[in-house]
From TrEMBL:
Residues of the Integrase catalytic domain: 1-118
Gene3D superfamilies cross-referenced by the UniProt entry: Ribonuclease H-like superfamily/Ribonuclease H
Listed name of the protein: Integrase catalytic domain-containing protein
Pfam families for this protein: rve_3
InterPro entries for this protein: Integrase_cat-core (IPR001584), RNaseH-like_sf (IPR012337), RNaseH_sf (IPR036397), Transposase_IS3/IS150/IS904 (IPR050900)
PANTHER family: TRANSPOSASE INSF FOR INSERTION SEQUENCE IS3B-RELATED (PTHR46889), TRANSPOSASE INSO FOR INSERTION SEQUENCE ELEMENT IS911B-RELATED (PTHR46889:SF4)
Length: 130
């Protein structure tokens, strides 16, 4: 999952081992405490920062996303088949990332924000958690 996200966002890990790599902040879900995930992070010098248990406020961006997708996607439709749910969620994600403006990103879409800062680096006060 993380490798696919890095590829899709064209994030390049510096080859120079003395240069800091990226930081990823997650909860303590089973996928993030697995040996495979830990090995991947170590191999690519990704600093994995885990939030303490029972502290969703420390991962506010993803918690907000879960609330938004619940309210704007899951509660609006009743899905009869997996394929229908997959299509609707994919459609929502396209809208969310390409057309929906986000106050936390200075009223840009996530794609606009990423394109604006991918070469310059993200402002520290706008660090994004996964």
């Amino acid at each position: 999952m993380l490798q696919e996200a890095l590829i899709r966002r064209q994030v390049h890990i510096p080859q120079d081992e003395s240069v800091s790599s990226i930081i990823i902040r997650t909860d303590n879900g089973p996928q993030f405490v697995s040996h495979d995930f830990g090995d991947f992070c170590e191999q690519y010098r990704i600093y994995h920062e885990r939030i303490p248990t029972k502290s969703p406020n420390l991962n506010a961006y993803i918690e907000s996303f879960h609330s938004i997708i619940e309210r704007e996607c899951y509660q609006r439709d009743t899905f009869e088949f997996f394929e229908e749910a997959y299509y609707r969620i994919d459609e929502f994600m396209e809208f969310y990332n390409n057309r929906r403006y986000h106050g936390s990103l200075n009223y840009l879409t996530p794609v606009q924000f990423h394109n604006l800062y991918k070469d310059e680096g993200y402002p520290e006060e706008m660090a994004i958690s996964l």
